[in-house]
Design brief:
By secondary structure, this protein is of the alpha/beta class. Helices cover 36% and strands 19% of the residues. The chain has eleven helices and 17 strands. It has a seven-stranded mixed sheet, sandwiched between helices. Strands 1-2-3-15 form a four-stranded mixed sheet. It has a four-stranded antiparallel sheet with strand order 13-14-17-16, covered by helices on one side. Helix 5 (133-138) links the parallel strand 5 and strand 6 (155-158). Helix 3 runs parallel beside helix 8 (276-290), helix 9 runs parallel beside helix 11 (370-388) and helix 10 crosses helix 11 (370-388). The two termini are 35 Å apart. The chain binds pyridoxal-5'-phosphate. Residues 97-99, 102, 128-130, 180, 184-185, 213, 215-216, 241-242 line the site of pyridoxal-5'-phosphate.
Protein backbone atom coordinates (compact mmCIF):
# COMPACT_ATOMS: atom_id res chain seq x y z
CA UNK A 1 0.00 0.00 0.00
CA UNK A 2 1.32 3.45 -0.83
CA UNK A 3 1.85 6.01 1.89
CA UNK A 4 -0.96 8.33 0.86
CA UNK A 5 -4.72 8.08 0.85
CA UNK A 6 -5.32 8.32 -2.88
CA UNK A 7 -6.82 5.19 -4.35
CA UNK A 8 -4.38 3.22 -6.41
CA UNK A 9 -5.73 4.05 -9.88
CA UNK A 10 -2.70 5.77 -11.43
CA UNK A 11 0.97 4.88 -11.44
CA UNK A 12 2.38 8.27 -10.55
CA UNK A 13 5.70 10.02 -10.92
CA UNK A 14 7.29 11.10 -7.64
CA UNK A 15 6.64 14.83 -7.96
CA UNK A 16 4.13 17.25 -6.46
CA UNK A 17 3.38 20.42 -8.40
CA UNK A 18 2.49 23.59 -6.59
CA UNK A 19 2.66 26.28 -9.26
CA UNK A 20 3.35 27.08 -12.86
CA UNK A 21 3.76 29.72 -15.51
CA UNK A 22 3.42 29.42 -19.28
CA UNK A 23 4.56 25.94 -20.32
CA UNK A 24 6.43 25.29 -17.07
CA UNK A 25 5.25 23.62 -13.87
CA UNK A 26 7.02 24.16 -10.56
CA UNK A 27 7.31 21.45 -7.91
CA UNK A 28 7.38 21.77 -4.12
CA UNK A 29 11.19 21.90 -4.16
CA UNK A 30 11.21 24.84 -6.53
CA UNK A 31 12.28 22.85 -9.62
CA UNK A 32 10.74 23.78 -12.98
CA UNK A 33 9.51 21.15 -15.44
CA UNK A 34 8.84 21.81 -19.12
CA UNK A 35 5.36 20.44 -19.68
CA UNK A 36 4.59 18.54 -22.88
CA UNK A 37 1.69 16.74 -21.22
CA UNK A 38 -0.40 19.80 -20.38
CA UNK A 39 -2.67 17.88 -18.02
CA UNK A 40 -3.13 15.44 -20.94
CA UNK A 41 -4.27 17.98 -23.50
CA UNK A 42 -6.23 19.98 -20.90
CA UNK A 43 -4.12 23.04 -20.11
CA UNK A 44 -4.27 24.58 -23.58
CA UNK A 45 -3.37 28.05 -22.30
CA UNK A 46 -0.61 26.82 -20.02
CA UNK A 47 -0.28 28.07 -16.47
CA UNK A 48 -0.89 31.41 -14.76
CA UNK A 49 -2.85 32.63 -17.77
CA UNK A 50 -4.01 36.13 -16.87
CA UNK A 51 -6.99 36.27 -19.24
CA UNK A 52 -8.43 32.96 -18.12
CA UNK A 53 -7.81 33.81 -14.48
CA UNK A 54 -9.58 37.18 -14.87
CA UNK A 55 -12.58 35.50 -16.52
CA UNK A 56 -12.87 33.01 -13.67
CA UNK A 57 -12.40 35.79 -11.12
CA UNK A 58 -15.46 37.56 -12.62
CA UNK A 59 -17.57 34.58 -11.63
CA UNK A 60 -16.05 34.42 -8.16
CA UNK A 61 -16.78 38.11 -7.71
CA UNK A 62 -20.40 37.68 -8.82
CA UNK A 63 -20.83 35.44 -5.79
CA UNK A 64 -22.58 32.72 -7.82
CA UNK A 65 -20.42 29.74 -8.68
CA UNK A 66 -23.31 27.55 -9.60
CA UNK A 67 -26.91 27.83 -10.71
CA UNK A 68 -29.14 24.78 -11.07
CA UNK A 69 -30.12 23.81 -14.60
CA UNK A 70 -33.69 24.38 -13.42
CA UNK A 71 -32.78 28.01 -14.25
CA UNK A 72 -30.48 29.75 -16.71
CA UNK A 73 -27.21 31.39 -15.94
CA UNK A 74 -25.95 34.00 -18.36
CA UNK A 75 -22.61 32.29 -18.82
CA UNK A 76 -24.04 28.96 -19.95
CA UNK A 77 -26.22 30.62 -22.59
CA UNK A 78 -23.23 32.46 -24.00
CA UNK A 79 -20.94 29.42 -23.76
CA UNK A 80 -23.43 27.33 -25.77
CA UNK A 81 -23.77 30.06 -28.39
CA UNK A 82 -20.02 30.44 -28.80
CA UNK A 83 -19.32 26.72 -28.86
CA UNK A 84 -22.02 26.21 -31.49
CA UNK A 85 -20.49 28.98 -33.62
CA UNK A 86 -17.01 27.55 -33.24
CA UNK A 87 -18.02 24.01 -34.17
CA UNK A 88 -20.80 24.69 -36.67
CA UNK A 89 -23.14 22.54 -34.55
CA UNK A 90 -26.57 23.63 -33.26
CA UNK A 91 -27.32 22.44 -29.74
CA UNK A 92 -25.12 21.85 -26.73
CA UNK A 93 -25.47 19.61 -23.69
CA UNK A 94 -22.93 20.46 -20.99
CA UNK A 95 -21.44 17.95 -18.59
CA UNK A 96 -18.19 17.57 -16.70
CA UNK A 97 -15.86 15.21 -18.53
CA UNK A 98 -15.10 13.36 -21.73
CA UNK A 99 -16.64 10.12 -20.55
CA UNK A 100 -19.83 11.95 -19.62
CA UNK A 101 -19.97 13.68 -23.00
CA UNK A 102 -19.69 10.30 -24.73
CA UNK A 103 -22.18 8.76 -22.34
CA UNK A 104 -24.64 11.48 -23.35
CA UNK A 105 -23.92 10.86 -27.04
CA UNK A 106 -24.43 7.10 -26.73
CA UNK A 107 -27.66 7.53 -24.78
CA UNK A 108 -28.91 10.04 -27.36
CA UNK A 109 -28.08 7.60 -30.17
CA UNK A 110 -29.91 4.78 -28.39
CA UNK A 111 -32.99 6.93 -27.84
CA UNK A 112 -32.94 8.06 -31.47
CA UNK A 113 -32.72 4.42 -32.55
CA UNK A 114 -35.29 3.09 -30.11
CA UNK A 115 -38.30 3.86 -32.31
CA UNK A 116 -36.57 2.23 -35.28
CA UNK A 117 -35.43 -0.88 -33.42
CA UNK A 118 -31.82 0.21 -33.94
CA UNK A 119 -29.43 0.01 -31.00
CA UNK A 120 -26.03 -1.32 -32.07
CA UNK A 121 -23.09 1.08 -31.78
CA UNK A 122 -20.03 0.59 -33.97
CA UNK A 123 -16.77 1.85 -32.49
CA UNK A 124 -13.13 1.43 -33.48
CA UNK A 125 -10.44 -0.86 -32.16
CA UNK A 126 -7.69 1.04 -30.30
CA UNK A 127 -10.14 3.86 -29.62
CA UNK A 128 -10.60 5.53 -26.26
CA UNK A 129 -13.89 7.02 -25.10
CA UNK A 130 -13.64 7.12 -21.30
CA UNK A 131 -14.19 4.96 -18.23
CA UNK A 132 -17.92 5.02 -17.47
CA UNK A 133 -19.75 1.86 -18.48
CA UNK A 134 -21.00 2.75 -21.95
CA UNK A 135 -17.92 4.84 -22.78
CA UNK A 136 -15.53 2.11 -21.70
CA UNK A 137 -17.54 -0.46 -23.64
CA UNK A 138 -17.30 1.73 -26.75
CA UNK A 139 -13.55 1.89 -26.09
CA UNK A 140 -12.11 -0.73 -28.43
CA UNK A 141 -9.36 -1.98 -26.15
CA UNK A 142 -9.67 -5.24 -24.23
CA UNK A 143 -7.41 -4.12 -21.41
CA UNK A 144 -10.02 -1.58 -20.31
CA UNK A 145 -12.84 -4.17 -20.33
CA UNK A 146 -11.08 -6.83 -18.31
CA UNK A 147 -12.62 -7.53 -14.87
CA UNK A 148 -15.68 -5.33 -15.47
CA UNK A 149 -18.13 -7.77 -16.99
CA UNK A 150 -20.95 -7.75 -17.71
CA UNK A 151 -20.56 -4.78 -20.05
CA UNK A 152 -23.64 -3.16 -21.63
CA UNK A 153 -24.60 -5.07 -24.79
CA UNK A 154 -24.88 -3.72 -28.32
CA UNK A 155 -21.31 -2.63 -29.09
CA UNK A 156 -19.24 -3.97 -31.99
CA UNK A 157 -15.75 -3.02 -33.12
CA UNK A 158 -14.30 -2.15 -36.51
CA UNK A 159 -10.75 -1.32 -37.55
CA UNK A 160 -9.83 2.38 -37.56
CA UNK A 161 -9.10 3.73 -41.06
CA UNK A 162 -10.60 0.58 -42.64
CA UNK A 163 -13.99 1.49 -44.10
CA UNK A 164 -14.70 -2.07 -45.28
CA UNK A 165 -14.41 -3.34 -41.71
CA UNK A 166 -17.11 -0.83 -40.68
CA UNK A 167 -19.34 -1.72 -43.65
CA UNK A 168 -19.08 -5.38 -42.71
CA UNK A 169 -20.63 -4.64 -39.29
CA UNK A 170 -23.58 -2.52 -40.45
CA UNK A 171 -26.96 -4.22 -40.31
CA UNK A 172 -30.60 -3.17 -39.73
CA UNK A 173 -29.92 -2.94 -35.96
CA UNK A 174 -27.02 -0.46 -36.28
CA UNK A 175 -27.82 3.00 -34.90
CA UNK A 176 -24.51 4.88 -34.69
CA UNK A 177 -20.80 4.97 -35.39
CA UNK A 178 -18.43 6.62 -32.89
CA UNK A 179 -14.92 7.58 -33.94
CA UNK A 180 -12.08 9.88 -32.89
CA UNK A 181 -10.96 11.96 -35.91
CA UNK A 182 -7.49 11.62 -34.40
CA UNK A 183 -7.05 8.61 -32.14
CA UNK A 184 -5.34 9.88 -28.99
CA UNK A 185 -4.82 7.19 -26.34
CA UNK A 186 -4.55 4.61 -29.11
CA UNK A 187 -1.24 6.14 -30.21
CA UNK A 188 -1.88 9.49 -32.00
CA UNK A 189 -3.27 8.22 -35.28
CA UNK A 190 -5.10 10.70 -37.53
CA UNK A 191 -8.03 9.34 -39.54
CA UNK A 192 -7.51 9.36 -43.27
CA UNK A 193 -9.68 11.71 -45.31
CA UNK A 194 -11.16 8.74 -47.17
CA UNK A 195 -12.13 7.10 -43.89
CA UNK A 196 -14.04 10.06 -42.42
CA UNK A 197 -15.72 10.87 -45.72
CA UNK A 198 -16.52 7.20 -46.20
CA UNK A 199 -18.08 6.99 -42.73
CA UNK A 200 -20.26 10.02 -43.46
CA UNK A 201 -21.51 8.43 -46.69
CA UNK A 202 -22.10 5.11 -44.98
CA UNK A 203 -24.05 6.76 -42.14
CA UNK A 204 -26.14 8.77 -44.59
CA UNK A 205 -26.95 5.72 -46.70
CA UNK A 206 -27.92 3.48 -43.77
CA UNK A 207 -29.48 6.17 -41.61
CA UNK A 208 -26.94 6.01 -38.78
CA UNK A 209 -25.78 8.76 -36.47
CA UNK A 210 -22.12 9.69 -36.83
CA UNK A 211 -20.46 10.63 -33.54
CA UNK A 212 -17.05 12.28 -33.41
CA UNK A 213 -15.19 12.05 -30.12
CA UNK A 214 -13.04 15.18 -30.06
CA UNK A 215 -12.43 15.06 -26.34
CA UNK A 216 -8.67 15.13 -26.90
CA UNK A 217 -8.21 16.45 -30.45
CA UNK A 218 -10.83 19.23 -30.20
CA UNK A 219 -10.60 22.81 -28.89
CA UNK A 220 -7.77 24.07 -31.06
CA UNK A 221 -5.30 21.23 -30.62
CA UNK A 222 -5.36 20.27 -34.31
CA UNK A 223 -4.84 23.86 -35.46
CA UNK A 224 -8.58 24.14 -36.18
CA UNK A 225 -11.17 24.67 -33.47
CA UNK A 226 -12.20 21.04 -34.06
CA UNK A 227 -10.12 18.40 -35.82
CA UNK A 228 -12.90 17.31 -38.17
CA UNK A 229 -12.79 20.80 -39.69
CA UNK A 230 -9.46 19.79 -41.22
CA UNK A 231 -11.35 17.06 -43.07
CA UNK A 232 -14.42 19.07 -44.07
CA UNK A 233 -16.89 16.42 -42.95
CA UNK A 234 -19.36 16.97 -40.13
CA UNK A 235 -20.82 14.58 -37.59
CA UNK A 236 -24.36 14.43 -36.22
CA UNK A 237 -22.95 14.44 -32.69
CA UNK A 238 -19.67 15.93 -31.49
CA UNK A 239 -18.19 15.41 -28.04
CA UNK A 240 -15.43 17.43 -26.46
CA UNK A 241 -13.92 17.98 -23.01
CA UNK A 242 -10.25 18.09 -21.91
CA UNK A 243 -9.22 21.63 -23.03
CA UNK A 244 -12.82 22.84 -23.24
CA UNK A 245 -12.53 25.06 -20.17
CA UNK A 246 -8.74 25.42 -20.06
CA UNK A 247 -8.34 23.32 -16.90
CA UNK A 248 -11.74 23.72 -15.25
CA UNK A 249 -13.58 20.38 -15.46
CA UNK A 250 -16.09 20.51 -18.31
CA UNK A 251 -17.45 18.40 -21.14
CA UNK A 252 -19.94 18.99 -23.92
CA UNK A 253 -22.00 17.05 -26.41
CA UNK A 254 -23.05 19.01 -29.49
CA UNK A 255 -25.61 18.03 -32.09
CA UNK A 256 -26.98 19.12 -35.41
CA UNK A 257 -30.02 18.14 -37.45
CA UNK A 258 -32.28 15.36 -36.23
CA UNK A 259 -30.01 14.62 -33.29
CA UNK A 260 -30.82 18.06 -31.84
CA UNK A 261 -34.44 17.13 -31.15
CA UNK A 262 -34.02 13.72 -29.54
CA UNK A 263 -33.69 14.61 -25.87
CA UNK A 264 -36.58 16.21 -23.99
CA UNK A 265 -36.71 17.19 -20.30
CA UNK A 266 -36.31 14.11 -18.16
CA UNK A 267 -34.20 12.12 -20.63
CA UNK A 268 -30.76 13.16 -19.48
CA UNK A 269 -29.25 15.63 -17.04
CA UNK A 270 -26.22 16.72 -15.09
CA UNK A 271 -26.22 18.69 -11.84
CA UNK A 272 -22.94 20.43 -12.57
CA UNK A 273 -23.18 20.54 -16.38
CA UNK A 274 -22.94 24.15 -17.56
CA UNK A 275 -21.80 25.29 -14.10
CA UNK A 276 -21.29 29.08 -14.12
CA UNK A 277 -17.56 28.94 -13.43
CA UNK A 278 -16.93 26.26 -16.05
CA UNK A 279 -19.15 28.06 -18.56
CA UNK A 280 -17.23 31.32 -18.11
CA UNK A 281 -13.98 29.46 -18.72
CA UNK A 282 -15.51 27.86 -21.84
CA UNK A 283 -16.45 31.32 -23.13
CA UNK A 284 -12.86 32.43 -22.63
CA UNK A 285 -11.54 29.39 -24.49
CA UNK A 286 -13.99 29.94 -27.37
CA UNK A 287 -12.98 33.60 -27.64
CA UNK A 288 -9.34 32.55 -27.74
CA UNK A 289 -9.94 30.00 -30.51
CA UNK A 290 -11.80 32.67 -32.46
CA UNK A 291 -8.49 34.50 -32.89
CA UNK A 292 -6.86 33.51 -36.18
CA UNK A 293 -3.39 34.22 -34.81
CA UNK A 294 -3.88 31.75 -31.98
CA UNK A 295 -4.68 28.86 -34.31
CA UNK A 296 -1.97 29.78 -36.81
CA UNK A 297 0.46 29.64 -33.88
CA UNK A 298 -0.74 26.10 -33.10
CA UNK A 299 -0.29 25.12 -36.74
CA UNK A 300 3.16 26.69 -36.99
CA UNK A 301 4.41 25.19 -33.72
CA UNK A 302 3.04 21.80 -34.78
CA UNK A 303 4.90 21.97 -38.07
CA UNK A 304 8.06 23.04 -36.28
CA UNK A 305 7.81 20.23 -33.71
CA UNK A 306 7.20 17.57 -36.37
CA UNK A 307 10.17 18.87 -38.39
CA UNK A 308 12.38 18.53 -35.30
CA UNK A 309 10.99 15.07 -34.56
CA UNK A 310 11.63 13.97 -38.15
CA UNK A 311 15.25 15.08 -37.69
CA UNK A 312 15.46 12.94 -34.55
CA UNK A 313 13.96 10.05 -36.47
CA UNK A 314 16.87 10.24 -38.92
CA UNK A 315 19.39 10.36 -36.08
CA UNK A 316 17.67 7.55 -34.15
CA UNK A 317 16.33 5.45 -37.00
CA UNK A 318 16.83 2.33 -34.87
CA UNK A 319 14.56 3.70 -32.10
CA UNK A 320 11.98 5.95 -33.78
CA UNK A 321 9.79 4.15 -36.30
CA UNK A 322 7.30 6.93 -37.09
CA UNK A 323 6.38 10.57 -36.46
CA UNK A 324 2.63 11.22 -36.49
CA UNK A 325 0.19 13.99 -35.73
CA UNK A 326 -1.34 17.30 -36.69
CA UNK A 327 -1.20 20.69 -35.00
CA UNK A 328 -0.04 20.14 -31.43
CA UNK A 329 -1.21 16.56 -31.02
CA UNK A 330 1.78 14.49 -32.05
CA UNK A 331 3.56 11.28 -31.28
CA UNK A 332 6.64 9.27 -32.10
CA UNK A 333 6.32 5.49 -32.40
CA UNK A 334 9.25 3.68 -30.81
CA UNK A 335 10.89 0.29 -31.25
CA UNK A 336 11.37 0.17 -27.47
CA UNK A 337 8.95 0.66 -24.54
CA UNK A 338 8.12 4.40 -24.37
CA UNK A 339 8.32 4.32 -20.56
CA UNK A 340 12.15 4.18 -20.69
CA UNK A 341 12.30 7.37 -22.73
CA UNK A 342 9.59 9.11 -20.70
CA UNK A 343 11.49 8.25 -17.49
CA UNK A 344 14.79 9.64 -18.82
CA UNK A 345 13.05 12.84 -19.89
CA UNK A 346 11.37 13.10 -16.49
CA UNK A 347 14.80 12.97 -14.80
CA UNK A 348 15.78 15.88 -17.04
CA UNK A 349 12.61 17.74 -16.11
CA UNK A 350 10.67 17.34 -19.33
CA UNK A 351 7.16 15.96 -18.86
CA UNK A 352 5.96 13.53 -21.53
CA UNK A 353 3.25 10.87 -21.55
CA UNK A 354 3.00 7.70 -23.56
CA UNK A 355 0.04 6.69 -25.72
CA UNK A 356 -0.82 3.17 -26.80
CA UNK A 357 1.87 0.54 -26.32
CA UNK A 358 4.73 2.17 -28.23
CA UNK A 359 4.17 5.90 -28.63
CA UNK A 360 5.55 8.94 -26.82
CA UNK A 361 2.95 11.67 -27.09
CA UNK A 362 3.39 15.44 -27.31
CA UNK A 363 0.36 17.48 -26.24
CA UNK A 364 1.93 20.65 -24.79
CA UNK A 365 0.01 23.81 -23.95
CA UNK A 366 -0.98 25.46 -27.25
CA UNK A 367 0.97 28.57 -26.26
CA UNK A 368 4.24 26.63 -26.53
CA UNK A 369 7.09 28.53 -28.24
CA UNK A 370 9.82 27.52 -30.67
CA UNK A 371 12.39 28.00 -27.93
CA UNK A 372 10.50 25.61 -25.65
CA UNK A 373 10.16 23.07 -28.44
CA UNK A 374 13.92 23.31 -28.98
CA UNK A 375 14.50 22.74 -25.27
CA UNK A 376 12.19 19.71 -25.23
CA UNK A 377 13.73 18.18 -28.35
CA UNK A 378 17.21 18.62 -26.90
CA UNK A 379 16.22 16.73 -23.74
CA UNK A 380 14.52 14.06 -25.83
CA UNK A 381 17.66 13.72 -27.96
CA UNK A 382 19.87 13.29 -24.87
CA UNK A 383 17.44 10.77 -23.43
CA UNK A 384 17.31 8.73 -26.62
CA UNK A 385 21.13 8.69 -26.72
CA UNK A 386 21.28 7.43 -23.13
CA UNK A 387 18.63 4.79 -23.76
CA UNK A 388 20.58 3.56 -26.79
CA UNK A 389 23.96 3.33 -25.04
C1 LIG B 1 -9.56 11.57 -22.34
C2 LIG B 1 -10.53 11.07 -23.33
C3 LIG B 1 -11.83 10.68 -22.97
C4 LIG B 1 -12.28 10.62 -21.52
O1 LIG B 1 -12.30 11.86 -20.93
P1 LIG B 1 -12.46 11.99 -19.32
O2 LIG B 1 -12.59 13.46 -19.11
O3 LIG B 1 -11.21 11.40 -18.73
O4 LIG B 1 -13.66 11.22 -18.95
C5 LIG B 1 -12.72 10.32 -23.97
N1 LIG B 1 -12.34 10.33 -25.26
C6 LIG B 1 -11.11 10.70 -25.64
C7 LIG B 1 -10.78 10.73 -27.10
C8 LIG B 1 -10.15 11.07 -24.70
O5 LIG B 1 -8.92 11.39 -25.08
Amino acid sequence: MSNNHLMNTYSQWPVTFVGGEGAYLKDDKGDAYLDFVGGIAVNALGYKHEGLAAAIREVLDSGVLHVSNLYYNAHVLEAAKKLAALSGMEKVFFCNSGAEANEAALKLARKWGSGKNKSTIISMLDSFHGRTYAAVTATGQKKYHQHFAPLPPGFVYAHFNDLDSVKALVDERTCAVIVEPIQGEGGIVPATKEFLHGLRDLCDRHELLLIYDEVQCGMGRSGKPFAHQLYGVKPDILTTAKALAGGVPAGAMLTQGEASDVFVPGDHASTFGGNALAARAIIYMCDTLQEKAFLSHVEAMGNYLRMKLEELKVQFSDLITAVRGVGLINGIALAIPPKEVVAKCFEKKLLLASAGSNVVRFVPPLIITEKEIDAAVKILQESLSEVRS
